[in-house]
Amino acid sequence: MASNEASVPNSKEHKFNPHFTQAVINATGPKATPRVRQLTTSLIQHLHDYARENELTIDEWMTGLELMNEAGRWSDNKRNEGQLLCDIFGLESLVDEITYKLASDAADEPTATAILGPFWRADAPQLSMGDSIVQNTEGIGEGDRTKMHGIVTDYRTGQPIEGAVLDVWHTAPNGLYEQQDPNQPEMNLRGRFTTGKDGKYEFYCLRPVPYPIPFDGPAGKILQALDRHPYRPAHIHFIITAPGYKPIVTQIFDRNSKYIEDDAVFAMATFDDAKKHSAAGATEVSTAAI
């Protein structure tokens, strides 16, 4: 049976019961899987270390609990406040980086991934190549009509991939995704496209704009407390899948966008990364290969 032993924190040890954390860890039963045991042991250890190191008070603990409860109340099938909280603390970007690097061989550098974000929706309409994902702009701003085009290739061989499905979505010129905005029709600015033998794709959209993540809920309270802005640089989301290949979740950024070096959810850590995965600032953009 795997051991539950974990080191007792040194910080504040002289003040607090040095055996308490290990007692909680030891309560894990023998039927717990090794991965569950590993994750919960580490979680308990870090949570207890955090409480000791900061000498967490009852009032502060209750404030944190209420924040999590409030995030649940704000969440529904159109908004995931828990994910927004993870985003503003950089957790989703960190997990994405870990997943990406674990999935890639040391010498391999396929198209870099980026966070999914809380506004993806399943079952976007399947469209024909060259169609527009713009259904209606009334009441949301006209925006700049933009042609997105590129080719999906095998990054090792450079050969085009037939049958790759690109699931794309972005905000309207008013900075809102369609599920946030009653003025937009269902699935506006969303679509799926399937490549042919040449691996090429093209579709029309609106040039994306910077926008604020929702800041009227718990995530906004945290940003305000930290004296941080809620804005993301202009980008378009992609999920690319193809038979026999690992899926890619990524974003294409406009390198000329405001906030490109100061993304509220840390999807773009540096401008150097933005250069690798951004639009060229023109109205026609090619994606990197997978």
Automatic annotation (TrEMBL):
A Pfam family annotated for this UniProt entry: Dioxygenase_C
Needed cofactors: Fe(3+)
Species per Swiss-Prot/TrEMBL record: Pseudopithomyces chartarum
Keyword annotations from UniProtKB, A to Z: Dioxygenase, Iron, Metal-binding, Oxidoreductase
Any one Gene Ontology BP term: catechol-containing compound metabolic process
Positions of the Intradiol ring-cleavage dioxygenases domain: 131-267
Name this polypeptide is given: Catechol 1,2-dioxygenase
Lineage: Eukaryota, Fungi, Dikarya, Ascomycota, Pezizomycotina
Family: Belongs to the intradiol ring-cleavage dioxygenase family.
InterPro entries with a match to the protein in the record: Catechol_dOase_N, Intradiol_dOase_C, Intradiol_dOase_core, Intradiol_RC_Dioxygenase
Domain Catechol dioxygenase N-terminal span(s) in chain numbering: 34-103
A single GO molecular function term of this UniProt record: ferric iron binding
